Amino acid sequence: MTTSLTRVLRMVAPVAIGAAAITSVACHDFLKVEDPGRFSNEALDNPTVLAAVANGVEGQFQQVYDDFVVFTGLNSDELINSSTWIEWADVSTGRVRGDWPTATPGWSTAQDELLRNRFAAQNAADRLIRVLGADVAAKSPLMAQVKVYEAWADLVLGMGYCETPLAQNAARSPDTELYKQAVTKFTTAIGIAQAANTPEWVNFARAGRARANLLAGNYDAALADAQAVPTDFVKRALYSTNSATTFVGNQLHYNRNRSGGLHTLYWSVVDTANSGSGVTNPVQFVKDPWTNQADPRMAVSHKSGGVAIGVDNKTKHYAIQKYSDYTNPITLTSKREMNLIEAEVAWRKGQLATAIDDMNRNRTTAPANLPAFDATGLTPQQVFDRLLSERFAELFIEGHRMTDLDRFNLVAAKLGTGRARKFPLSRNEILNNPSLKQGVAACPAIS
Questions:
Q1: What is the separation of C-alpha 405 from the centre of its chain, rounded to a whole number of angstroms?
Q2: In terms of DSSP bridges, do strands 284-287 and 294-300 run parallel, antiparallel, or are they unpaired?
């Protein structure tokens, strides 16, 4: 089966830049073809281009994660729609329901792309075994890379969607099963990464497993994984100036577009003292609710006398300054997230002082540099309130908030009743998966 060279290059090196660009691979001869309009899939079974195949899996994940962040933010209390798109309005008001009749809304396309990414990782793993042999592939850094991203695809599918097939052409499964499957896949990836002596993939997989274990309710395992992640660890999705499809840098800032911005719930707590008309892009911050100080982790921008409303010409626009450009990275996970996982586990165990200490590791260091919490006399509810607040600030517009509001049953309290707490299964998947049929959705839960 043949396809165009352009399509092949998009498969092995998507626009979003992963660990390396395709130009870093010594594949000049590989790109010399007699007929550039036709290119065989089998030609990718070439040791000189395997790195590009693995990087393509990584880049594909990073590109779709950008969309995931926007739509989950709109469905939560992070972002408010200020576009003219009905699908954004549907998400921002929580109107979506199970077996949603529209085939290609953005949140649905994001699930489609995550499913494709999972398959791409599996296909890349099969290719590595075919080309390198099973023994070599099992110790290959490239195998570690694709296996880690296969697990991450499952984890993010569980976070965003109330049901997803566990495998190609499989039946619907609830998000809880995606978390369990992600834990198993992360464990496999860690073993391969350790055999390949690649600490960067060991740590990325271990951080992913910490989150998956937390969401699956395996709190002791989540704690152990979080504690094992090094202090300075961070993994980001990286984007280039060619990433014209990026959403966070394209749609949430008036440098580019004004389709969405900070949710109305937080407008009153933004320090807008420098919003004068002479300031082009004032850097402002949502205030920390415990000290009323500006929190550098939540950077926004709202100016007076200039562009201060969205493209719908009615909604005030508080741009997400954290993503003021196409090239701004998105943090996928970090030790700072692990500190919050440790804090949550301690809170669940009734170890309130420990939970506060874990949170203070973030609060008292850059970029926050805020006063430490004092655990003296705090009740479990008061510690939880601080934990939720710290998760909002530390993980601001990084794809976590919708999951948090759902799992803590806070959608109604924060946003009101009658709202979808997660996204339903993609209609494209329903129509193209022979194991599925329309009209049998059991979710999402409604606030």
A1: 16
A2: antiparallel
Q: Residue 322 and residue 398: Cα distance in Å, rounded?
A: 10
The DSSP line for 159-225 is HHBSEEESSTT--EEEHHHHHHHHHHHHHHHHHHHHHTT-HHHHHHHHHHHHHHHHHHT-HHHHHHH
Cα distance between residue 44 and residue 28, in whole Å: 13
pLDDT per position as a tens digit, 223-268: 999 999 999 999 999 998 776 567 888 899 988 899 999 999 999 9
Instruction: Give per-residue burial for 30-64: e unless 16+ CB within 10 Å, then b.
Output: beeeeeeeebeeeebeeeebbbbbbbbbbbbbbbb
Strands (E), 50-119: 79-81
Distance CA 244, CA 43 (A): 29
Alpha-carbon distance of 325 to 250, in angstroms, equals 7
Express each pLDDT in 420-446 by its tens digit.
999 999 999 999 999 999 999 999 999
SS3 content of the chain, % helix, strand, coil (to 5): 50, 10, 40
36 confidence band (pLDDT: 50, 70, 90): low
Q: Which of 67, 78, 424, 54 is nearest to 248 (CA)?
A: 67
Round to whole Å and give the CA distance between 415 and 77. 7
Burial of 1 (0-12, 13-18, 19+ CB in 10 A): exposed
Instruction: Name which of 241, 405, 395 is nearest 325 in CA terms.
Output: 241
- Each residue's pLDDT tens digit, 352-385: 999 999 999 999 999 999 999 999 999 999 999 9
Cα four-point dihedral sign 435, 436, 440, 445: positive
Asked if residue 341 lies in contact with residue 226, where contact means CB atoms within 8 angstroms, the answer is yes
φ, ψ for residue 352, nearest 5 deg = -70, -40
End-to-end CA distance of the chain: 48
Please, are residues 141 and 198 in contact by the beta-carbon 8 Å criterion?
A: yes
The helix/strand/coil state of 350 is coil
Tell me the Ramachandran region of residue 326: left when phi exceeds 0, alpha when psi lies from -120 to 50, beta otherwise.
alpha
Strand partners, 235: 333
Q: What is the pLDDT of residues 62-95, one digit of tens each?
A: 999 999 999 999 999 999 999 999 999 999 999 9
Residue range 308-341, pLDDT digits in tens: 899 999 999 999 999 998 889 999 999 999 999 9
The two structure tokens encoding residue 391 = 């998760």
Residues facing residue 172 across a β-bridge: 165
Q: Cβ–Cβ contacts within 10 Å for residue 416, how many?
A: 11
pLDDT surpasses 60 at 10? no
pTM of this structure = 0.91
